[in-house]
Each structure stands twice: as C-alpha cells, then as structure tokens.
Amino acid sequence: MTEEIMLSIENLKVHFPIKTRSFSAPKSFVHAVDGIDLKIAKGKTFGIVGESGSGKTTTALAVMRLVPITSGAITLGDQRLDGLIGEELRRARRHMQIIFQDPYSSLNPRVRAGAIVREPMDLMDVGRKSEREDRVAELFRQVGLHPEQQGLFPHQFSGGQRQRIGVARALASQPDLVVCDEPVSALDVAIQAQIINLLRKLQAELGLTYLFISHDLGVVQYICDDIAVMYLGKVVEMGDRISLFKGPLHPYTWALLSAVPSADPALRDRTDQIRLQGDPPSPIDPPPGCGFASRCPFAQALCTKEAPPLRSIRTSHSVACHLVSDNGAPPQRQI
After folding, report:
1. Is 81:44 a contact under the CB 8 Å cutoff?
2. DSSP readout, 80-99?
C-alpha cells in the first residue's frame, strides 16, 4: 500500500545575499540550504538533524514560507506553496503551523493565554465565532492545561506550560502539517519528555504530520519515523529510524552518534568512535566536492573534487558519500 505524501520538497535552495559596501563588488550569498529533496508521509514524523548552521531550521522556515526561497518546489498535499503570495499564502497558512523553539519569546507577554490560542482562529476565520471560545477550552484540555488558565499571562506559566500553549496555538487552525523547530531544546530534561509524549499523543489522536527539527539524537530517535541528516545545507544521509541508528553509513552520521553521551561503559569506551576535528567550511563559499571532506578521516582525492549524489543503498536508506560501497559498507567499517 502506497503512503500518501503530505509534504514534498524538491531541490530546495535558500541563499541569503550578503550586503557589501561597494556597488562594484561581486555579490556573495550564504548557501543556507543548497538543494535538498524530502518527502513526508501523512501521519508520520520526519526528523532533520545536524550541527548548528547545517540548514535544518532554515529548511523548516522555508517550508512555512517565513524566509524567501531561492528556487525549488514545496508541495503540501496537492497545493504548491513556493509560488504563493498575498491572500493565497495567508489562506494556505491554515494548513501548516509551527511550534517555535523558545516558549519564553514566542508568546506575546501582553496577551492572555486564551487570546493567544484563539488568535489563529480569528485571523484565518476557522469555525464559527460562537464556537471559538469552547474550542479554545478544548485545546487547553488537549495539551494538559486547565481551561480556567486562559485568563493568565505567559509569565504566570512555567516553561513547559508555555510550550503547551504554543502547541495549542499551533493546533488551533486544525493544520495538516506541524513544523516543530527544536520544540524541547529550551526545556529541562524531565519536561522535554512530557512535551514529546504530548506530541506523540496528539499525533495519534488527530492524525498529525510533523516535520521535526532537532540537534538531539535521543529525542529524534524516540519520536521520528524517518530522519534526514544535514551538513552544510545538504542532506548527507536519509533513512528510517531503525536503519539509520543501527547502521549509519555516512561518516558524519557516525560521528554524531559517537558524540551522544551514554551511561553504558561498553558504548562510552568504544574504539570505533569518530571525533571530528575543525569546523565546517564557510557556507558563503562552499568548497568543491563533498562539504564534509575537510573533516572526514577517510577522505580521498575524489571527495575534494566531485560532490557525491544522494544515492539509494537499500530500501528507505540513502547516503551521499563516494566511499560507501554499493552493498552498504561504510568507510568506517572498511578499515
């Protein structure tokens, strides 16, 4: 049975121009996202991971049309989003909402919690006006808050409660896609688990589709069905949760997994860990070939000259690395 695709991204590029003082100077651009392809099935959670500056948050903002798109196609359901402007874009926003990273700065401190959750319904004309008050109370219950708390201001809630308000606000317009931009990174570990469990519960109840952005591999492993690993604006590996965590192919993915803290001495003292040296290249002038070559302990001459394509190694698992064999042997296992 073929899965219904909720979100499709084709060759997405987001390049930010750099201001120069001289009119005669050549234009330079930050290649934040440099040609990626993703498909997210309806009712699933798709995770994007990578270091700071890898382009994962810019990808999320591009999907929401909150940053300008240089080129590429974004399709939500059967509607193209990349070319929408004005009133058409405003109407489309009802079907896609975002949960921001910081619950402290993403809520207006001068507006009461109930009004914050109701605002999307008023702006997008969702449901009857007479029913919106009851709908807000229902949303409060769904996210684990008491309807009586609607009259409070954001500063009167804890961090976890503020993020629950953010979740309720995202659900107010009954969206098809919810973009989660590191929604638990600003919270304590115990509260992180509560919010993640809430997101999973809401997905099961409402059939939501999530695009989940995170740098925390533990969180991604828990909530995501499929995962893309980004580096320097490109997807270097993509696969389902089990195959990616049990058999990482790209040296960068291997290095990310090696860096995850563990209380297990057998995992903590492994001899096959990769510890990266140096910093990623500048996204203003990306190097030819593989962007990871300068930090890769297995890099060869070909890696610095020719950019590897994202190729399928096995079902639901792709990698962009010249050194991964056709039968799926990664370079870290070939030595």
Report:
1. no
2. E-TT--HHHHHHHGGGEEEE
Tell me the pLDDT tens digit for each residue of 153-199.
Answer: 999 999 999 999 999 999 999 999 999 999 998 888 889 999 999 99
The C-alpha atoms of residue 172 and residue 138 are separated, in whole angstroms, by: 10
Domain boundary assignment for the chain: 246-335
Contact 29, 41 (CB under 8 A): no
The arithmetic mean of pLDDT across residues 271-279, rounded, is 70
For 259-323, give the DSSP string. Answer: TS--S-HHHHT-SS-----S-PPPTTSPPSS-TTTTT-TT--HHHHHSPPP-EEEETTEEE--TT
CB 307 within 8 A of CB 288: yes
Output 196-202 pairs: Cβ under 8 A, ≥24 positions apart.
196/222, 196/223, 198/143, 198/144, 198/164, 198/167, 199/167, 199/223, 202/142, 202/143, 202/167, 202/171
pLDDT of 308 above 60: yes
Query: Sign of the CA dihedral 270, 315, 203, 125?
Result: positive
The neighbouring-strand residues paired with 9 are: 38, 74
> In sequence order, which residues have a C-beta less than 8 Å from that of residue 84 and are 6 or more positions away?
65, 92
Residue 98 structure tokens:
């975002």
Q: In 3-state terms, what secondary structure has residue 223?
A: helix
Tens-digit pLDDT profile for residues 208-252: 999 999 988 989 999 999 999 999 999 999 999 999 999 999 999
